Amino acid sequence: MLLLQEEKKSLINTLRGKGIIDERILNAIYNVPREKFIPEAFRKYAYDDNALPIECQQTISQPFTVAYMTLALNIQPGDKVLEVGTGSGYQTAILCELGADVYTIERIEQLYNSSKELLESLGYRFHINLGDGTMGWEECAPYNKIIVTAGAPSIPPTLIDQLDMNGKMTIPVGSLEFQKLYDITKTPEKVEYKVHEAFKFVPLIGQEGWNKSLR
User: Fold this and answer.
1) Which residues contact 125 (CB under 8 A, 6 or more apart)?
2) Catalytic residues, which ones?
């Protein structure tokens, strides 16, 4: 347990060194047991600042990426957040730790089942749906914030539609090889875009994403 605490502290120091200084986000990352979201074979790397493989040929994102995207959205307690791509459930847990009302959607049934079971066992309260994340979760819209955790070829218009007025979305957009992170704010006059640095995500599969034959 002491070793685990030291590994967590080391990760937090690494994130601070990379410019993540929001204490709420750092505390959330410290409090979420990342080792539980990772297959047994990779758990010794749980608090390295790296992406790691999980089941179904997917990945758990690098902690810096999770922190960066969460910071870009300025998550506040009570925010109604749509997460597209539950994956391991790690980002979901971070959002819950920050007090968000989380609606998360996953297209792969095996991941849907495993992440739902894990998150519930850890005591998190959230809403989860099995389906095409590129089409959002219309019956629960609109959302104050939307976070997309897979790389899209373009910005899904359906997600823009489900974003509340003055809401924010963060989404990686680009090729299959790498993407740039887009910050999107929906205002009464227009949709505003801000482009951040490049990242690499698994592809966003769906009707308004990449073709499902890729995975």
Assistant:
1) 96
2) 61
- Residue 155's nearest CA partner among 172, 176, 136 is 172
CA distance 80 to 101: 5
* Region of residue 145 (phi > 0: left; psi between -120 and 50: alpha; otherwise: beta): beta
**pTM for the structure as a whole:** 0.95
* pLDDT tens for each residue of 121-168: 999 999 999 999 999 999 999 999 999 999 999 999 999 999 999 999
Give kind and range of the element (H or E) at residue 52: strand 52-53
Count structural domains, the chain. Answer: 1
The domain that holds 107 is classified in CATH as: 3.40.50.150
List Cα–Cα distances, 52 to 35, 103, 134, 162, 189, in angstroms. Answer: 11, 24, 24, 31, 41
Domain that holds residue 115: 2-214
Find residue 177's DSSP bridge partners: none
Residues of the chain falling short of pLDDT 50: 213, 215
Contact 174, 151 (CB under 8 A): yes
Two tokens, residue 74 = 């300025």
